[in-house]
Model the fold of this input.
Amino acid sequence: MAVLEVENLKTYYYLGKESVKAVDGVSFKIEAKETLGLAGESGCGKTTTAYSIMRLLPENGRIVQGTIRLGDEEITALSEEEIRYLRWRKASIIFQYAMNAFNPVLRIGAQIVEVIREKEGVSKEEARATVSDLFDEVGLEPKRQRDYPHEFSGGMLQRAIIAQSLACDPMLVIADEPVTALDVIVQNKILDLLRKLQEKYELAVLFITHDLSVVAENCHNVGIMYAGNLVEVGSAKAVFKHNLHPYTSKLIGAFPSVIGEKKRLQFIPGTPPNLLNPPAGCRFHPRCPYAQDICKEKEPMYREIKQGHYAKCHFAGELSFEVIE
Amino acid sequence: MHILNESGAVSARTSVGTRRYIAQRFVQTIIVWFMIITLNFIIFRVMPGDPRQALLGEGIPPELRQAIVERFGLDKSLIEQYFIYLVNLFQGDMGYSFSHFGEPVWKTIFDFRFANTFILMGASMAAAIIIGIVVGVIAAARRDTLIDTGSTVTFLVAYAMPVFWIGLLMLMFFGFQLGIIPLAGTITRGYVHVNFLDYWRDYLWHMTGPWIVLTLSFIGGFYLIMRDSVLDVFTQDYILAARAKGLKERTILFGHAMRNAMLPMVSVVAVNLPYLISGAMITEFVFSWSGLGLLTYHSVLSVDYPVLQGIFLFLASITVFANFLADVLYLYLDPRIRY
Done:
């Protein structure tokens, strides 16, 4: 059974009477030991999807439709108190800016001890011992748990954040741009650490990023989001080599390649739509070079084109894109 | 300081700098204090009006007048007077009151008046700070609900109303008509207290009126700063992280948000301390509470320069040292501040 199963999720933000359709009909699932990379431009709904899973939306955000199944719990229907009980037990988050995710005036160890004691009801000494083990696991000296956040470097903080995410033995870890703020050397170390821990604890990981190279290296499956829609999902290899959606193809084309001859980067003309009033039909049609009349009128189905490879495009599988190596 | 050493290896490295910082701030504080002592001397010498006139009044024989002037050293040059003032001050001698039968100023201020003011102000400020902080945190957490708007409006109205007016209304209604609070003084006159507890019961009963008035007028400021400060903290990522960790709302509010939001409060409280002592003048006057505020008022009326000089010096000293203490307190509240 899948650890996380999201079915036709719609999360809107309300501004007065108008609604911003930040996530509009997203479906995917993640198995244990599997990583799904969620990629897309800023503002396409990646983080809103993640926060919907944790039910951490701001006051004006609401899940209006769809189901989120986390283990054996259907979490969209839970009360605030029930979801509070599940947070960190079933799913935890690795935040992007580790420096800001720790309270600056409390010791790092104390902030992890706090969540362990809240969830497991153990003594302070037992919780401290757990933190020592976790610090050891992520490559930090256990005695550094007495330090304050500002006494850690960026990489160390990211390790501490990872230790914190594992504190209550979750099934799912949501990594929200976990390495974006780090330099590439540290990035690599942190990603290796994440992979190792995922294997050991049989974690399902939802990996949110806008860096496609990180996705390509770290994720088993990839989901590409555009304007609140999940436009393509499939194994990393399938999505990168045999992509079905024009947006995926354009997005990958917009990334530089280190190997091979130098060439001009492609860019996608136009801007992502305003989600207060998204375009009718396919949301990508105003920027799509392959758009036909049907794209302007009818919203495409999200369908399985090949085994385990889904796309939301009328012409998925029929188009042939310029091959990108 | 053991607080600083507690944080282990890293702070041990920096604590030398911290100690030096505290020492530096202390020296600065002493210098400022010394300047205040000097200024305090000058102000009373350049003010218009002759204190000798106030001291002696009309119709005193010239010989007696001369004798008194010499006794107080008022015939000496200003520089000489200044050094006499300094030497006396460091011996704990602030001169003699003109109007309290030649009582030493030290005694006029500290015999019982300072204690009266200190107890009244301490109780009002403590109540105002605690209520302001707790209600401020809760109002921020329940932003735009009835609790938030209700407490904001209530405290703002209380803050904006003149204290003498609330004081008079309280005296008229609760004191005169209902008779549940006393009309004046710190204890019941002519009543012989059976024991120490009885004395305190009487004292606190007399304090009820001024205490409520002062607390009401102080809450507003503390409440607004706290509420604002907490709202600001709520936008920080670590609050979202605390929510994601599924902590109880109470833990998030009082464990994570409050301590960060307390930082601006410390300066405000430190800066306000002396204002609050002098600011109680009107309340002390309305309730005939025999404290420093009332003493200031009477001293101004009777041109009792030595007492005024003593009070001013005392208030200024509190300001300077309270700010020093606030800076040291920051070191404890915010671990990022290390020198």
Q: What stands out?
A: Chain B has two domains: 2-99, 113-289. The interface with chain A takes residues 7-10, 236-238, 240-248, 251, 255-256, 259-260, 333-336 of chain B (CB under 8 Å).
